[in-house]
């Protein structure tokens, strides 16, 4: 920007403005102002006060009446700092229109720092003759666009200087100084393919602003036809690639600093070359780009335009194709986002598969040759024979296949081949070979008396029949099948089994023995009684070596509680019957029945002591009332710790009589409360109950004084 421009301006508020927010003033005195009137700045803070700016109240700069000048400096600081040293700054001034001829007495200059050091050129009135909006009488408001300084010169403020005008007392009003926030875009780089048009989106767009594109950050040339008053700046396809600069202009007049934006135009990739391919129905085929270009991906479609990509690779494999199909492929540069101008058509031709052949199964005997033959073979079709349903190596080619001296039943698989295509499946054809069966293998078994069991032929041959006898030769078969179940066997028996297949019988019968083992005897376990909560041991009487004893809570079934000759029951509380069986681990046989053994739980005796006896000093006995339960018939007494030794414990079980216990009291026992505990015992079942506490209250004897009075004051 090569000139200092002044513009008339209405008092509209704009959201993109950032105002100067700091000021100072000074007087430049040439001859001194001791005897004359000095210049002054009145209400200097108005020019940086948001409230006064909004109210349109300026500061006033009055020149001195000597050859000197008055200056007001405003700065952009903190959050209001200039975004760059080349940011255009607008200054709103007002002066008397009748004094416009003295405009040379007003100048503007950029400054830097707290002391407002001048920076760059000072622009004076002679530079401001071509004013806009001049006319009329009275005051004239002017908005000045102060040119930028070199990018290397730091600046953060503006100085407005009003000089003396031959004793006229020239004055000017400074309303404010501001800059416009530079535009920002969502992406500073616009990647375009070829001569495609595009657009930048202005993320801090503000209505009332015009956005223009220039060829340089300062000055430069406006790009013709590229401007907008919306948030979208359209870029025509004719605009060359390069870096441009985006400027916001308030009311299409007051400029912001410019924001660099870059237009990148990338070359379109070439449409690929892809040869056509022929395949068979159901056979996967791969279409491949010839000489693919590094950095270019290839997108495959079923449509010449639009649609969704099937894959993005140099090749595309079609699994199990059924019909001839044309695909379309475009080149795509992921780095630039550019796509080839057209898609290449490539055709996959799919030939139909021949039908799988029909072949009847054949049955023969071991050692007898047999021929397998295709029914109604098709001319021009080749038939390949295999021993596996898929893969493998062909064992024969032709409409027939003769197998010499077959030994085992075998399934062969036949496919048809026509025009290079193979039938979708192979036809299975079975040559059944009936062998002279070998004598079967039937393992013997052992079981327990009364336990049913099954004897089974090991690895029975498919198609063979197995007959069971009680003699090694001759006789009549009593069962036919691979598995023979003997119900409730009682004695050891040997059976004989032969195999037959297609009228052929094994040369011998196989002997198989069923060994029947006796059952172990149910154990003897004596019943036991114990006190509630007292662990007890139940034991098998005269246990037999080699026999395991298993304990249950039920006469049949249930879960094993314990294994062994002894069973400890901890803290039993109720009478319970247990059941014990004998198990021979060697034979696997279990006793026919379980032995019931009852554990009787005797309840613990208890005693209730009430009420506590009361006696006088000198009494030798106290009567302790009681009520017993659960057969308690004897007792012991233990005095609590701290009781005088003259109180004797009852350490032997003593029979209870009547309904109270006579407690011996020493004759020298003084008055007070004495406590102890009573144990209760059932001598019939030997169960002892829990301790019960009691107390004896001894009162002073009649006629004895036990009152002591101390520290009596008359």
TrEMBL record:
Signal peptide: 1-15
The Ig-like domain, residue ranges: 183-263, 269-352, 354-435, 437-518, 520-603
Chain segments annotated as coiled-coil in the UniProt record: none
Keywords carried by this UniProt record: Signal
Protein name from the UniProt record: Ig-like domain-containing protein
Taxonomic path: Bacteria, Pseudomonadati, Bacteroidota, Sphingobacteriia, Sphingobacteriales
